[in-house]
Amino acid sequence: MTDQPQASSMVPSTPLPAPRAELVGGFYMLSCGIDVLLCDVWGVVHNGQTAHKAACAALEMFRAAGGTVIMVSNAPRPSVDVVPQLLSYGVPATAFDRIITSGDVTRQLITARAGQSCVHIGPERDLTLFQGLNVALTDAAIADYCICTGFADDETQTPDDYAVTLDLMAARGLTMICGNPDLIVERGKKLIPCAGALAMAYEARGGAVIYAGKPHLPVYQQALMLAEQVRGAAINLARVAAIGDAVRTDVAGAAALGVRSILLLDGIHWHDVGADAWPGGYRDWLSRQAVQPHYVMPRLNW
User: Would the CA dihedral through 58, 60, 61, 62 be positive or negative?
Assistant: First the structure.
């Protein structure tokens, strides 16, 4: 799997403007220059418990005006399992065209290792990831590699709870495939650790990690292919934007792809930015980040 989009048409027709973290009052201010929106899921259209109605309405209006919405999620489950979850939270099917998840990419990586065994680190709810694939689940002492989808109990556990397993894997030189590169995610008003935190702890031990989702390009490559299918035409990256609530994944991923980024600051970064974020207090915090977004909004709204 290559890290670069393959279609020769997927290049900007004009240079992108420099990211300036410009405050935008509503998505309508940008929508006329966008054909395809690569939209984060958790933290944008829902908070892990209920849908953000204004965000969903904005996506519906964008689609009604001719735009295409491809959901790009770091969920470590196949997209066919994520869609029912979205609907159960109240996200309408009319808010998006297609969805691609890091779980979909992870399944491709498992398929490429057909016949090998793996140790799974993660909750039982993620076991659908392995359905129909030629892989044997076993323990770290004899596995060929590791699939990490998160914490068995993300309400109470930390990476320290997995120290023995991670140490054993590192000693054996196992490769970890991280099915969710996020470090944390918003669940209601709480911040919950994700598989990315375990992957970081494994890398600190010298372990090798393959990341299946954002900010790495394979998931974006597949998202662009889905957009091309929906629109029936080549995709011009100059008219693509990515929106999300994480600098490390959403903004960095957009920068790697070469498209405009929109950062939502009332998601996982609300505690970083602080109470004085608006109208301009967020800039000091953003200035210390490795990558900058082109635009910022509190939450997605039309």
Answer: positive
